[in-house]
Amino acid sequence: MKSENLHTVLFVSRNKDNDRLPGFKPRTRAQLKQFDLYTPDGLQLLSDETIGEQVQQEFTEFMWRGVPGEMARIYVSINPRDPEKTRFDLIRRLLPPQPVILPKLGGLAASIASKPENRSGNRWLLDWDAEQVDPDFLQLLVSLGLHPICRSTPHGWAIIVEHGFDTRLVDRSLPVTVKKDGMLCVGWGIRKN
């Protein structure tokens, strides 16, 4: 399995989006999937179709298990996961005396793969919580030799850069949170009645 194609996929229904719905309970489902997320040069994200029809179908089923009006999201790891490190950690976790519930094995593998030490890339995600990204902020990233990839999210923007940088250069008053191995929101939906 090629490491550049292995990503953690997370379906999530959060309190933040659904706290006013009667009968709502937060839900998550994690899994590992193999697909390309970036163009061959690594400077652009591929379209949402890259996660494939299978993931979209599974997401639709996840949404229908929620309450009417519930919003759910799809997140994908911005860094691919290292299959050898993940396999080694999974084998170690499966050894006694720790019991494992077999139907939850896929989620356990995804959880292990999601650990920062099991990534095989160094991309950072900058979570920008505002309607527009400040062009001066993007220019700062470019001046640092980075190629920012911007993508809209339900509550702002995700900015992906190919590696870390000195965050002391970022004005603390900006609406940005740095995530060194973040998950990118690639889709969302609301369950209809």
List the helices and strands and how they pair.
Blueprint: E1 6-13, H1 15-18, E2 27-34, H2 52-64, E3 71-77, H3 83-94, H4 105-113, E4 124-128, H5 135-143, E5 149-153, E6 156-161, E7 176-179, E8 183-190
Antiparallel strand pairs: 1-2, 1-3, 3-8, 4-6, 4-7, 5-6
Helix pairs in contact: 3-4
Radius of gyration: 18 Å
Shape: globular
* Biggest β-sheet strands, sense, barrel: 4 strands, antiparallel
| Contiguous runs where pLDDT drops below 50 for at least 5 residues | none
- Count of extended strands: 8
- Structural class designation: alpha+beta
Give the H and E element order: EHEHEHHEHEEEE
Describe the model.
The chain is of the alpha+beta class. The protein is 24% helix and 26% strand. The chain is built from 5 helices and 8 strands; from the N terminus they run βαβαβααβαββββ. The protein has a 4-stranded antiparallel beta sheet with strand order 2-1-3-8, sandwiched between helices. Strands 5-6-4-7 form a 4-stranded antiparallel beta sheet, with no helix packed on it. α3 (83-94) crosses α4 (105-113). The longest helix has 13 residues, at 52-64. The radius of gyration is 18 Å and the shape is globular. The mean pLDDT is 90.
In short:
This protein is of the alpha+beta class and 193 residues long. Helices cover 24% and strands 26% of the residues.
Provide key terms for this protein.
four-stranded antiparallel β-sheet, single chain, alpha+beta, globular
